[in-house]
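Open question from group meeting: does this chain pack into something compact, or does most of it stay loose? Before anyone orders reagents, we agreed to write out a predicted structure and look at it together. Recording both the input and the output here so the notebook holds the full record.
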Amino acid sequence: MSGTPTLQKTPKDQEPGGASRTARGRLSFAKVLLIIAGALLTLSVVREIVDQVASGQTPAFNNITSSGQIAAGLSMAVPIGLAGLGGLWAERAGVVNIGLEGMMILGTFFGAWAGFQWGPWVGVLAGVLGGAVGGLVHAVATVTFGVDHIISGVAINILALGATTYLAKRWFEPLSEEGGSPKQSPQVDDIQQFTVPGLSDWLADLEKHHWFLLSDLAGILGGLVTDISALTIVAIALFAGTFFVLWRTSFGLRLRSCGENPIAAESLGVNVYFYKYAAVVTSGALAGLGGVFLALVRSHIYNEGQTGGRGYIGLAAMLFGNWRPGGLAMGAGLFGYSDALQLRSGGTTVHALLLLLALGLLALAVWRLTRKEHVAATLSGLAAALLILWYAMTDSVPNELVGATPYIVTLLVMALAAQRLRMPKANNKPYRRGQGT
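Structure tokens returned:
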């Protein structure tokens, strides 16, 4: 519109706040491919080692690259990724959303309730709306009334848990004949799944040969093209759509400017309140969709406490990804994979993960040495040596540690990734309308 001040589009290597991507060491596409190839090779080496140690038995170690493991890892990664994507939308607009866990809880409850009443796709819509309402409450508290973002988020988590516990007793307990109880809903119908015909069978046959690298690659690809939920496809599309909207449109540029310098954005005619509200409500809707995935795809029912802290792990995945969709997807995949490891085979498979982590730490130590970071390289090398020693002296991981695997991996990854993080400059900072005039 003529006469309306507009923000100029920033170059592709520039953020609205002026920080150059190259200055922050952004990985090139070739380096990403090299990292992926190295990870595949490492997985294959680990599988060969543990298979040799197994001496011809049929242990759960093969699960580390099996199609079943990859499919389970993907299904565990989707709700984490959607929660992290919600956090990315909010924090790119300058609002910290600790309430993602509560918004996921709202998504699980309303998704299962409406899904049982009117079908799974109505349940998806209801869960998204439930999460969006949680996001709206957070936006009103933080943007309009200036409540501290952390306090508001924690309050939403508590309120969501209390509200759903109360409503479950009112709505699900009378449905005991259909399988309802005060802590769970009746079962909901499945959401459609897809398999790539021909390719899936060919990859499954190739996986059975247990050839080095080739069968591992077949197992990984097979898990990505076999019995994939429609909601998984929706989640992948949302990641691509988020990148396009936030980094390739004027709407996204204005929204990100609110998270970098809202006063400057307001001086250029940007309605900062509108963009913050849009971002936080979208954040809640995405977290709600992550909750819907847990309720309607993972278990087909609502269970009290089924989010299991995945909203917080989603925030960790967002931090790991440095507030960008691609890195977030990698972080969610890593956390989902480790979560699936402990759920599918317990201590024996997690035991193999010790060796995988040791090799990763050794690679990190070498990389640190090339950058002349001798102290960090020494610490990584010592940690790798301890993990190898632990692996050599034991046959399994204690059950007490198995359930904590995804949380331990989260802490390790965040400790290693913390040095390269660059949050939006105005994140969690108070803003009042009129400051830019």
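Observations to bring back to the group:
The CA atoms of residues 203 and 218 lie 5 Å apart.
The longest strand covers residues 193-194.
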